[in-house]
From TrEMBL:
Keywords: Cell membrane, Membrane, Transmembrane, Transmembrane helix. It is a multi-pass membrane protein. GO terms for cellular component: plasma membrane. It comes from Priestia taiwanensis. Pfam families: FtsX, MacB_PCD. The keyword Ion transport does not apply. Belongs to the ABC-4 integral membrane protein family. Residues 24-213, 477-700 form the MacB-like periplasmic core domain. GO terms for molecular function: transmembrane transporter activity. This is Permease. Coiled coil: none annotated.
């Protein structure tokens, strides 16, 4: 078996130029995969580091905010028994509310455990964290104000008990999101003893082992401790939102890059295998098995994959080091908080995948050898060009048509099938287009060459004949370039469609200039304080404020649900939901419909405030429940009392996230249904008012309620545009690499074509043909192939993107004409450059040497 390895190594050395170029193409694909993987990992680490520095290393906290309300060890044991917490840190606050004169001007006292994530979110300026006994670490501002130093013994009050002497062991730098101003951290057990509250805690900070269990844990805490305040720290989750959105794209682009590597290797080995048919036939005639010959090819592929993967990893590390700064800037990671570290275990994955894709790419060409009949090969009865049968072309054309029809009419077919089949259609369309590359080349080349035939007739005629004759050798490289262009055009149209859809969605769902609201994840537990409405209304520049009270759950009683929509009821029943539940919301309907451009479908015009017991519902709710104008609703509150409301108007839509509800007069809802606060405050500004200044005032008002969102639709649109720009940049990076890989493939294909025609080329040289004429012929071939790739990629991309946008229910905004022209120019240039490089070997051809080689 050693001869197999020796033969493979000899073949690699003899074809070192081909091996070099294919390895380079492989390295580019692996480089992109490495850059994406490392970038994703580094971004995750940097964001996690910054989040911990800002907020502390825990996912939620709960407890009591008043004095003299505590949990004990038994309560904590109940939560620990749930076994979902990775770490549960107890906090003791003896004075949540400073109700004693001796505490005025003093820092807030925190009793914490030695590994408290809250305390460790404070970085040490000097000293250490407290460990046991009468030790304290205090924030830097208070230390500087009082002129205290580490090691000083200071006296601190502990009302109603006597003052105590404690040693200052550390100075702390408060993080950006610190809950309190000045803080003093004590060992929890010592602090409990000083105020005689042994075993008592009023705050618990939890880090869950699985973030998906966070919501479930919140429900369990609410059930066991109904009166506790729960902070789900939604702002931490939002810090990772960009990463979560980008991860599927990152992995998809990496997969596409490696797939292109497999195509490049496949094209290269297809040419290599066919050019060495006589060698394989001779080996077979000498008794070698098919498996031996296939092993030689796969060993070559492993070598190429390993070399390419290694070079790609080195290049990927360098590329990632360069782009790390830009990535951190986009993610909002502050200077000094980012690091460039390499997770070496991640590099094993692209290395293995690079080798694997090279082997996969070589397997299909290797199977060609199974059909070798040595006698026929030696008699030259096997042609180097195998025409695709008309039946196959017809099949692929039908596949393209069916795929396009399915993708274009996907939304319509969804009503029948129950799902949108557009993505299936686009996949069939792409497969059909790529498989028809030889067919397209055959019919496009005569059309493209016509203008050149009038200028350089002989060269154009020879180029046309050669491109058509050897089109299958270049098919995979043309397919790679076409695929890249299809991705580029699709990405461009997708990004523009998504941006326009986002813009329209924001205009429809967030019509106000600024919205203050509770995140949807916690709105069933939290609300905005009532006093915020007046404070925000009084901000200079605020023209109008529309408030929505927090929803009040009621049940629709004494109602005949036989009038309701059967499918809607079945939907609720199958999911265990109560279709009799109706949510009451109080608001000023005049302001609401004016702000959100809502139309009254039926009933009285809402030009005056609603009277008590008058209700407004949406068209959707009316259709689902079967309600009509003047129907009376009997709404049962949680305490069993029933309030009646008469439907006076039906509106066409609702901008609220929770969907349909019963809208009533705000003051009436406040007094009758007693909501705990507001769900959202929709603010309209005066013309010329400073949005940033008003937002700063709102942040001052909402300080201490980190979960409250202050949303400006314009800022959201800018953020979305920045995000989409990053997506476009990543996809264009992939397209650039695909284009380079395709150029390498075209170069290999043209080199193989020249090698097959060496007798013809040598004969032309012998009868007086100049090298410049031959170079023109070869360059013209490259331009023809590049132009074909550009036309197929652009045309296929326009049709493919239509299907993709339909699958995602987006609309075509415009045809990217400038990008199309650029892509066509790039494709022509790539083909010409690849051919010009391949033409360099023409200098070594001579009739004598060629005839001598062929006769041998």
């Amino acid at each position: 078996m050693r001869w197999i390895y020796k033969y493979a190594w000899k073949s690699i050395k003899q074809n070192w130029i081909r091996v070099l170029f294919v390895s380079l193409g492989t390295s580019l694909g692996v480089m992109l995969a490495v850059t994406l993987l490392l970038g994703n990992d580094i971004a995750n680490k940097n964001v996690e580091k910054q989040v911990i520095q800002k907020y502390g290393d825990y996912h939620l906290q709960f407890g009591y905010t008043g004095n003299d309300t505590y949990m004990d060890e038994n309560d904590i044991a109940q939560l620990e028994a749930l076994q979902v917490a990775e770490n549960m840190s107890k906090v003791f606050l003896p004075y949540p509310v400073a109700n004693d004169k001796s505490l005025v001007g003093k820092p807030v006292y925190w009793g914490v455990e030695a590994d408290s994530p809250d305390m460790q979110a404070f970085s040490l300026v000097t000293g250490r964290y407290p460990q046991s006994g009468a030790e304290v670490a205090i924030t830097e501002d208070y230390i500087e104000r009082e002129g205290i130093q580490v090691g000083d013994i200071i006296t601190m009050p502990f009302p109603p008990y006597s003052e105590k002497e404690v040693m200052v062991v550390g100075v702390l730098d408060a993080p950006e999101m610190a809950a309190m101003g000045h803080s003093a951290y004590f060992p929890i057990q010592w602090l409990q003893e000083q105020v005689q509250k042994e075993g008592k805690v009023n705050v618990v900070q939890v880090k869950v082992s699985d973030t998906h269990q966070k919501r479930w844990l919140v429900d369990e805490i609410s059930e066991k401790f109904p009166d506790v305040k729960i902070d789900q720290r939604i702002y931490m989750d939002k810090a990772f939102d960009k990463l979560h959105v980008m991860q599927p794209l990152v992995y998809s682009l990496g997969a596409i890059a490696l797939f292109v590597v497999a195509l490049l290797v496949m094209g290269s080995f297809y040419l290599s295998v066919r050019n060495r048919m006589k060698q394989w036939a001779l080996l077979r005639a000498m008794g070698s098995k098919i498996s031996h010959i296939m092993s030689i090819i796969l060993i070559e592929a492993c070598f190429i994959g390993a070399i390419g993967a290694f070079i790609g990893i080195v290049m990927g590390i360098g590329a990632q080091y360069i782009v790390t700064e830009q990535m951190n800037e986009w993610l909002g990671i502050e200077g000094g908080n980012h690091t460039f570290t390499i997770a070496w275990e991640l590099l094993i994955i692209p290395f293995i995948l690079g080798v694997t894709m090279a082997v996969i790419g070589a397997i299909i060409p290797a199977f060609i050898i199974r059909k070798i009949k040595p006698v026929q090969v030696m008699r030259l009865e096997i042609s180097n060009t195998v025409l695709t049968s008309n039946k196959k072309n017809s099949f692929y054309l039908v596949l393209v048509v069916i795929g396009f029809v399915i993708s274009f009419f996907g939304p319509t077919m969804e009503n029948v099938l129950g799902f949108n089949p557009s993505i299936i259609g686009t996949t069939l369309f792409a497969i059909g287009i790529l498989c028809l590359i030889p067919f397209f080349i055959q019919y496009l080349v005569p059309i493209i060459i016509r203008p050149f035939e009038k200028v350089i007739k002989i060269e154009a005629m020879i180029s046309k004949r050669h491109v058509i004759q050897y089109r299958r050798k270049a098919a995979i490289s043309v397919a790679i370039l076409s695929l890249g262009f299809m991705l580029s055009i699709t990405a461009n149209m997708y990004v523009e469609g998504l941006y326009e859809g986002t813009k329209q969605g924001l205009q429809r769902n967030i019509p106000a200039d600024i919205v203050v609201r509770v995140p949807i994840e916690v709105e069933h537990r939290e609300s905005l304080p009532v006093e915020w409405k007046e404070k925000i209304s009084n901000i200079e520049g605020v023209r109008e404020l529309t408030a929505f009270t927090s929803t009040v759950p009621t049940k629709l009683t004494n109602y005949d649900f036989s009038k309701a929509d059967a499918e809607w009821m079945a939907f609720y029943e199958t999911r265990g939901m109560d279709y009799t539940e109706v949510k009451v919301v109080g608001t000023n309907m005049q302001q609401f419909i004016e702000m959100a451009t809502i139309s009254v479908v039926e009933g009285k015009e809402l030009k005056e405030p609603l009277m008590n017991n008058e209700a407004v519902i949406t068209k959707e709710m009316a259709m689902n429940v079967g309600l009509n104008i003047n129907d009376t609703l009997s709404l049962a509150k949680e305490n069993g009392e029933i309030e009646e409301a008469k439907v006076v108007s039906i509106i066409d839509k609702d901008i609220r996230r929770e969907g349909s509800a019963v809208f009533m007069n705000e003051e009436y809802v406040q007094t009758t249904f007693e909501p705990v606060g507001y769900e959202s405050l929709e603010v309209m500004l005066e013309d010329g008012a400073s949005v940033e200044k008003i937002k700063d005032e709102m942040k001052r008002i909402t300080k201490g309620h980190e979960s409250a969102e202050i949303i400006n639709s314009h800022e959201l649109l800018v953020q979305q545009q920045q995000f989409l720009s990053q997506i476009t940049l990543l996809i264009r990076s992939l397209v650039v690499i695909i284009s380079i890989i395709s150029a390498i493939g075209l170069m290999n294909a043209i080199v193989a074509s020249i090698h097959d025609r060496r007798a013809e080329i040598s004969m032309i040289r012998a009868i007086g043909g100049t090298s410049s004429q031959l170079v023109k012929v070869i360059v013209m071939e490259g331009i023809l192939l590049g132009t074909c790739a550009g036309i197929i990629g652009v045309g296929g991309g326009l049709l493919f993107s239509t299907g993709v946008l339909n699958a995602m229910e987006l609309h075509v905004v415009r045809i990217p004409v400038i990008e199309i022209v650029m892509l066509l120019g790039v494709s022509i240039a790539l083909g010409g450059i690849a051919a010009r490089i391949a033409a360099l070997q023409l200098k070594s051809f001579s009739l004598h040497d060629t005839l001598k080689e062929l006769s041998a």
